[in-house]
Design goal:
Blueprint (H helix, E strand, L loop, with lengths): L12 E4 L18 E7 L7 E6 H4 L5
Antiparallel strand pairs: 1-2, 2-3
Length: 63
Amino acid sequence: MAGTPETRHPYGYVTYAPAGQTCGKCRKPIPTDTPCRRGDIERASSSPVALYWHRECVMGGAA
């Protein structure tokens, strides 16, 4: 998994998800007007994929 250069944590920054995105942890939809965390997952055969998480899921709670 990619991560921030300082901590190697996969959640890069807070942003707003594009329409139709689901949380990488709980798999529930992320509303476009709700701040969420964004990160990248590296793939060996292609370019990285952007993933989004509810902020609550990143902190260990339920969304």
